[in-house]
């Protein structure tokens, strides 16, 4: 499989450019003011131990009161800062299928009604235990006009880890969600976190086997564990710090992981980054673009190729 020039992996930016004939496509993050079953008491309180919702929501989005303003201003910023031409509306914070279907429809409809001619897609972030046939049918109803993907947090493949981080669901529920989606025309993106201190490198590399075995998975997002203010893990880390990835060690890990990943899978992210005002550790002292360049250069310099060690 041929990847973009200078990339040893199936990068999302190149995928979008190819899919949409060279148009500049940008994701606009919106907040539908959803909550989470792991926060409202349905499954637990306090959320996953690593989580502070604000840490992965840009500050500007957190301050915008209405859906109309979020979409319109998000598009305007993307046009001004990135010369964006077309957009994917991305429901990111919290669990964006955790509401009755009629409420979800109203929320999605509103977000997709603003400058509709410039919208190419809808991306909805959620949990595996908040997906059912009725919600899948609703999302499928948009596929005649938009490309629609559903993004689920797998986080870890190990139940022991999921229990330790107070995830509120086990890996079997992730598998069940994928079973529900297997015949759907929705595209599936999954999210993983690497660097829980009790998981060894060998354990983390096993994530690749689990990702590869589900043909329905089209996109992945890889994140390294970062500790943020407002999280349970943040409190524990301040009391008793534990080892986290350095940028060099994480680059080494990616160079072992990427060759194991099925080559048709599109990698949307290699790492995660929270706002610096919330980040406790690790602070690599670089801007997001500089971190991306560091990883891309390391992958290129080492002649790493996605899927080169994948065995079907």
Structural class: alpha/beta
Question: What is the average of the pLDDT values?
Answer: 91
Shape: globular
* Helix proportion: 25-40%
Number of domains: 1
Strand residue content: 15-25%
What is the helix tally? 12
Q: Element order, helices and strands?
A: HEHHEHEHEHHEHHEEHHEEH
Gap between N and C termini? 15 Å
Total count of strands: 9
CATH superfamily: Aldolase class I
In short:
This protein is an alpha/beta fold and 312 residues long.
Features:
312 residues; alpha/beta; TIM Barrel; 7-stranded parallel β-sheet; two-stranded antiparallel ribbon; 12 helices; 17% strand
Report on the architecture of this protein.
This protein has 312 residues and is an alpha/beta fold. It has a single domain, classed as TIM Barrel (Alpha-Beta Barrel), CATH 3.20.20.70. Helix content is 35%, strand content 17%. The protein has helices at residues 12-19, 59-63, 67-82, 101-112, 133-140, 159-164, 171-181, 201-205, 207-212, 232-239, 247-257, 288-301, and strands at residues 25-30, 86-91, 119-126, 147-155, 187-194, 217-224, 227-228, 266-269, 279-281. It has a seven-stranded parallel β-sheet, sandwiched between helices. The protein has a two-stranded antiparallel ribbon with strand order 7-9. Helix 11 (247-257) packs across helix 12. It starts with 11 loop residues before the first helix and ends in an 11-residue tail after the last helix. The mean pLDDT is 91.
Write the layout of secondary structure elements.
Layout: H1 12-19, E1 25-30, H2 59-63, H3 67-82, E2 86-91, H4 101-112, E3 119-126, H5 133-140, E4 147-155, H6 159-164, H7 171-181, E5 187-194, H8 201-205, H9 207-212, E6 217-224, E7 227-228, H10 232-239, H11 247-257, E8 266-269, E9 279-281, H12 288-301
Parallel strand pairs: 1-2, 2-3, 3-4, 4-5, 5-6, 6-8
Antiparallel strand pairs: 7-9
Helix pairs in contact: 11-12
């Amino acid at each position: 499989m041929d990847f973009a020039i200078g990339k040893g992996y199936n990068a999302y930016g190149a995928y979008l450019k190819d899919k949409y004939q060279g148009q500049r496509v940008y994701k606009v993050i919106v907040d539908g003011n959803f909550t989470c079953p792991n926060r409202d008491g349905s499954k637990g309180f306090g959320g996953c131990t690593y989580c502070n919702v604000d840490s992965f929501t840009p500050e500007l989005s957190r301050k915008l009161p209405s859906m109309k303003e979020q979409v319109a201003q998000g598009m305007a910023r993307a046009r001004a800062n990135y010369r964006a031409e077309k957009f994917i509306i991305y429901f990111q914070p919290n669990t964006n299928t955790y509401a009755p279907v009629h409420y979800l429809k109203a929320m999605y409809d509103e977000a997709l009604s603003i400058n509709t001619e410039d919208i190419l897609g809808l991306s909805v972030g959620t949990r595996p235990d908040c997906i059912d046939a009725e919600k899948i049918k609703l999302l499928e109803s948009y596929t005649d006009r938009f490309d629609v993907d559903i993004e689920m947090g797998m986080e870890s493949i190990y139940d022991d880890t999921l229990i330790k981080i107070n995830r509120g669901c086990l890996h079997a529920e992730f598998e069940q969600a994928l079973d529900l989606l297997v015949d759907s025309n929705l595209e599936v993106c999954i999210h993983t976190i690497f660097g829980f201190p009790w998981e060894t490198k060998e354990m983390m590399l096993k994530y690749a086997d689990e990702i590869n075995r589900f043909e329905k998975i089209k996109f992945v997002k890889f994140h390294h564990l970062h500790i943020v203010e407002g999280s349970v893990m943040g409190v524990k880390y301040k009391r008793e710090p534990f080892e986290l990835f350095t940028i060099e060690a994480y680059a080494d890990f990616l160079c072992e992981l990427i060759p194991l990943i099925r080559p048709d899978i599109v990698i949307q992210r290699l790492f995660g980054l929270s706002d610096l005002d919330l980040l406790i550790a690790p602070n690599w002292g670089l801007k997001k673009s500089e971190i991306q360049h560091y990883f891309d250069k390391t992958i290129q310099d080492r002649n790493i190729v996605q899927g080169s060690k994948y065995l079907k």
